[in-house]
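Each lists sequence, tokenised fold; shown next:
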Amino acid sequence: MLPHSYTVDSLSQSEDLASAILASANPSQIAATCSSIDSFLHSHTPDQSRHFFSITFPTLICKLFGFNENATSLPQPQQPQKPQHPQSNGWIELASQPNHQDLSSKIFSLLSPNGTLMNSISAVDRHSLVKYVFPVERLPEWVRFMLSSEKDCRVLSDLCPLFKGKVKEDSVKGSLCQIQLNVFEYYLFWFAYYPVCKGNSENLESNTVKKSKKFRLENWTNSIRGFSGSSKREVEQKFEGNLYVQLLYAYLRAFVPIFDLGAHQPYRSSILNYSLKCDGSIIFRAEFLVNVLVHYWLVDNDFSPLPVNVCKSFGVSFPFRSVLGETPPTSGLGEVVKLFVKYLNLSSVISMDGFDNIEYSESPRWRASGGFESGKSRDVVSVSSSASSVGSWNSWIQRPLFRFILRTFLFCPVGSSIKNASQVFSVWVSYMEPWTISLDDFAELDEIVNGSSKDSRKQEAQSQASGYSQLWQRFVLSNYLYYSSLVMHFIGFAHKFLHTDPEVIVQMVLKVVSLLTSSKELIDLIRNVDTVFHSKQAISSKSTLNSLYRFVPSIREQLQVK
């Protein structure tokens, strides 16, 4: 038991730090406060840090993301602050401005996955010293709806692994449920919510100004491989000045293993060096981070947030369509979603050596966001078990990403700016061309985040395949709807928005046509699957077509919407 003087000292220092955080507005003040936080955590044990995470940490989150709050009230773990809309004076926003590289480095060091703060979070969570109640109004929309019903909230943890063990009864309001999180979970929920909140806020502002400056072709073509005049360096510079993107990449690299990357391990002391079998917390953190980003960015306000077969297996049915409506995803998420998806698809690239040797009795089924199929025990399925299947992490994002892109094409309102749709289009194109992804695509971010050299990986990056080959057949088959159904819906989108900016729309169409016709093998495969899908098995005697029939039930299941 700690002496009373230590407890009082820790409490007073935590309160002083909270006040210093609230008062820090310019780069020099923020940098000094970051140093004070680091010093405090270095000199205190996990138990002594309890007051920091009870009092100071929620305040730090509000200032990091620029949430506008009443500065006079400090949050308690069970009643945390409820940020509204991100402001331009948030620390991350401020550090992303030009000429603030020193501040950016300081904040990144504080929030780094290998930093003192994250190590303290791990220590505090290991002893379960602090729990937070996350505000319901900041959860993904479909989750908010479920928590509004006592009956629905009780099945939430079974339906969605992200909330397993986190749905608790509200001790104050009685029957209503609440989401309780440890420190690591609490931070990542706010981290994932930030771009959603920012996108919603910017969308409200843009709606007040109907005719904004015309969105120009070069603003988005630079991010799509294959367009003439594109400048990869311009895209890299955008990432260099975006602290949030740097942190996102750092967390993905540290917490989400992509097989064994051999010598390419930015965090030499991180979990990437450990076997997946050695520590269950490694698997938990990886699955948790992927899940929280999927549900905040890809699912959120989708009226069909879960696969139909998952809902049926639990005997539940929700009127999400009448409640959430046919709305497009939150705008402004294109860049972070693209980085997230490209990183996860590295697992497909890296596993390609063994890709063609994998045998299937049927196409991999789309899973509930969380990586398990209905009917299977949550304890059985993990990163290591999915690592041997097509795409590894790819199977975790197939359905939510498909619907994210689909809803953009279907529900993007006429008369709106095409900027957001073009960013989602870029995500789609990148996803359909995993063979163009290489480790070198992340070289600039690696250099910023970890100080690694691009030249050290130049040789291995050049060995990556640049076009479709037979090795990628399994990937295309398991993601067939991206090459068929989404193409059809994109054509409808292009027709609807042709008048908005003919040049942009024509370039989009040309890119899709170029991608699909870039390889005779690819177009033949898509044509053969389409033939099999629309025919009966007895019609064809060709062995090549017969081998594709086992994928048809899965494709039909993927098309189901509740």
Q: What stands out?
A: The longest strand covers residues 177-181.
